[in-house]
Design goal:
Elements lengths: L16 H20 L36 H13 L1 H25 L5 E10 L17 E11 L2 E3 L4 H67 L5 H35 L30 H4 L1 H22 L4 E16 L7 E16 L5 H69 L5 H35 L6 H10 L10
Antiparallel strand pairs: 1-2, 2-4, 3-4, 4-5
Helix pairs in contact: 2-3, 2-4, 3-4, 4-5, 4-7, 4-9, 7-8, 8-9
């Protein structure tokens, strides 16, 4: 097999001053355009009063797990079960996992260069149809199969001279932070919903117990009335009225029993036990007092409310996106190293039956610059559009802060009013009970008629119902207050997670 080497020495090319000057001019034009674009960032107004107008709180409660303040083991168990197994909790976790995966892919795309590995193989068949060879000459080509193989590994690495990559990383991290705060907000809402459903069921259980107690009282009054009517001491119409009052109480008890069953089923669904029997969720017939308002100040809402933190993260993301759009006016510099391997196998020259093969390796090292020129108007339009979106995010942040303050203030005012109402209705219910007991004794002695006794009983029933409603409302508004103050999640754990993802080059393989 013979070796043939051919080549041609190339002369150095002269310096093309015109092209270089044009490139320099375009680069300076891009820098000038970028320098002229420095969009002012909006400054949201997040000022809050120094204190709430509602009565100051006195309790130092653990807002992260506020449900412990109610000293109710069943409530704590239900909330912790819901946070672990409820469909809403698992769905929120899946959304967060999606955001985490998206962030990981985006970070890799920003910091890890594009490295395509390409290769190909081919076979070519050549058949000689005619060939003229001088006398004594050797055929220059032969028919047969020729094979070729090559592989190339090229890298393109953008130099982050102007901070475009870091600005893009800021967008990615702030988007993930917003997703994390949305996740925490969903869990906080779930905990509050479980507590509210639990106390609503408790309230229905107490109302049902009151209705059954009233049913026993009315049954006793009905029996008294029937005996007196049979003895001719009272008119039969009074016995009929007592019977009607008893039927009304029985109907109310049946309705409350159905409502309680529906409330228990809803609570089971909420905690992820929707197909369990109702008997698996006992409901105590009692309503404890709501805990006092936690001691806090309005400024704490900026760090504790997950929806406020989410709005803040979305504003930061929008601002970073605006920075990325501004930096798009600047030139992009890339380094493009690469290596390649190739091999070809073809029929040998002459009349032999062998084949010749050639193997080569190559490497390249290049650099290129990309300067936006003709698309500058489009880039400026993108900047204007993103500036508008950033201002929208700032307004949304302001609204989130004001809404958080309003919800917290209203919840605390309502809770304070509920607690005063409970105190007043407790005293009123005790007086109504004493009045009924006195009338019942008088009716048994024949000193008071049935109408007066039934009116006293109805007054006591109304007082009991109002007190039960007030206690239920106080518990519900206590839950609402804890939620409005930003309870139900741990800002500290989220901050630790944010520190772990702060390193722009750290990409977990998990």
């Amino acid at each position: 097999m013979s070796k043939i080497m051919t080549g041609e020495r190339q002369r150095p090319r002269p310096f093309r001053s015109g092209t270089s000057l044009l490139t320099l001019a375009l680069g300076l034009a891009g820098l000038a355009a970028a320098g002229c674009v420095n969009t002012p960032r909006p400054t949201p107004d997040t000022r809050l009063p120094a204190a709430y107008e509602a009565p100051a709180g006195a309790a130092q409660a653990d807002l992260d797990r506020w449900w412990i303040s109610f000293n109710d083991p069943q409530l704590t168990s239900l909330i912790e079960t819901a946070l672990e197994k409820a469909p809403d909790a698992r769905s929120a976790a899946a959304v967060l996992d999606e955001a985490r995966a998206v962030r990981k892919g985006q970070v890799r795309q920003i910091w890890i260069p594009s490295t395509p590995l390409t290769g190909n193989a081919g076979r070519t068949h050549t058949e000689i149809l005619s060939q003229t060879v001088p006398a004594g000459g050797i055929p220059f080509t032969r028919g047969g199969d020729s094979d070729s193989y090559n592989a190339n590994f090229d890298v393109s690495w953008e130099l982050d001279l102007f901070g475009r990559k870091r600005a893009g990383l800021g967008v990615v991290n702030n988007d993930f932070a917003a997703a994390r705060f949305a996740y925490e907000g969903a869990r906080a809402s779930l905990a509050a919903n479980v507590a509210q459903s639990y106390f609503e069921a408790r309230g229905l259980a107490v109302q049902l117990d009151d209705a059954r107690q009233t049913e026993r009282i009315n049954s006793s009054l009905r029996d008294f009335a029937v005996k007196k009517a049979n003895a001719g001491l009272i008119a039969t119409s009074e016995a009929d009225r007592a019977e009607a009052d008893l039927a009304d109480t029985q109907a109310r008890a049946a309705n409350l029993e159905a409502q309680l069953g529906a409330a228990r089923r809803s609570l089971l669904i909420l905690v992820g036990r929707g197909v369990d029997p109702l008997a698996s969720l006992p409901v105590d017939v009692r309503l404890d007092l709501a805990p006092p308002v936690p001691a806090t100040i309005p400024g704490d809402l900026l760090g504790r409310r997950p929806d406020v933190r989410e709005a803040q993260a979305r504003l930061a993301s929008a601002s970073k996106t605006l920075k990325v759009n501004e930096l798009a006016l600047l030139p992009t510099f890339n380094i493009t190293p690469g290596v390649g391997l190739s091999k070809s196998v073809s029929p040998s020259f002459g009349g032999g039956s062998g084949k010749s093969s050639t193997s080569t390796s190559t490497w390249t090292l290049g650099a290129n610059v990309s300067i936006p020129v003709l698309n500058i108007p489009a880039l400026l339009a993108d900047i204007d559009a993103q500036d508008a979106r950033t201002r929208q995010a700032a307004i949304a942040f302001e609204k989130a802060v004001q809404t958080a303050y309003g919800e917290a203030e209203n919840a605390m005012l309502q809770l304070a009013a509920d607690q005063r109402r409970v105190d007043l209705l407790t005293a009123g219910e005790a007086r109504a009970q004493r009045a009924y007991e006195a009338n019942r004794k008088g009716y048994g002695l024949g000193l008071i008629d049935l109408t007066t006794t039934l009116q006293a009983e109805q007054s006591w029933r109304a007082s009991r119902s109002a007190l039960t409603g007030a206690r239920t409302d106080a518990l519900l508004h206590a839950v609402q207050t804890y939620k409005a103050l930003g309870g139900g999640w741990s800002p500290t754990s989220v901050a630790q997670t944010a520190k772990q993802t702060a390193n722009p080059t750290q990409v977990s393989s998990k």
